[in-house]
């Protein structure tokens, strides 16, 4: 009966509750001292939930603002900064974006033909991109790059950029790695040429050194 209405983890918690043998069950409002519901404490709970949501959103906004500042403070060319900014907004002409604008597009990634072509996949998760990040020696997140959040993936890269645990040259190169992954994707889509991942990473690191 319980398994029909609740998740298994909740069923385990419910079955651990020992019923009282000396008094009848009764309904109680958890958010008042006497267990009784009133319109007043109902409104108080509603206000508290709204306030908590607004506080959480304010924290998210602050983190996002910091990330925008990090993008424009990158020690790279304006072209690279603009590209990273566009990537952060998901404003790259991948199949998913083209399709969302009402145009026909083959949704599969042209480079691997395994997953839908979204920005996260192209820049972080496609086998070509994954190999580039491995060769660039930038630490990946413990649970891997996010499949849906550019914000989280860029946040990880900026954290690596600020960490002394990562070599300085490696830290500086990540914007160029992103850029050259995107260029390699475009070369394959429009020119049907595959770039060596080794040369991609080497070129990204050389350009980072020259900046």
TrEMBL record:
Annotated InterPro entries: RVT-Znf (IPR026960)
Domain Reverse transcriptase zinc-binding: 64-133
Superkingdom as given in the UniProt entry: Eukaryota
The protein's name: Ribonuclease H protein
């Amino acid at each position: 009966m319980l398994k029909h209405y609740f998740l298994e983890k909740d069923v385990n918690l419910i079955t651990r509750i020992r019923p009282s043998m000396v008094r009848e069950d009764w309904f109680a409002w958890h958010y008042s001292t006497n267990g009784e519901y009133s319109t007043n404490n109902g409104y108080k709970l509603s206000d508290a939930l709204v306030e908590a949501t607004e506080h959480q959103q304010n924290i998210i906004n602050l983190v996002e603002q910091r990330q925008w500042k990090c993008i424009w403070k990158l020690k790279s060319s304006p072209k690279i900064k603009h590209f990273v900014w566009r990537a952060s907004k998901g404003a790259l002409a991948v199949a998913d974006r083209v399709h969302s604008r009402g145009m026909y597009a083959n949704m599969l990634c042209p480079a691997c033909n395994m997953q839908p072509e979204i920005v996260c996949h192209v820049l972080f998760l496609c086998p070509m991109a994954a190999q580039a990040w491995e060769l660039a020696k930038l630490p990946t997140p413990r649970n891997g790059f996010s499949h849906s959040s550019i914000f989280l993936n860029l946040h990880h890269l900026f954290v690596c950029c600020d960490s002394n645990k990562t070599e300085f040259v490696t830290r500086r190169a990540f914007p160029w790695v992103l850029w050259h992954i995107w260029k390699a994707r475009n070369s394959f889509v429009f020119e049907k040429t595959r770039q060596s991942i080794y040369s991609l990473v080497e070129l990204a690191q050389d350009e980072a050194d020259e900046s």
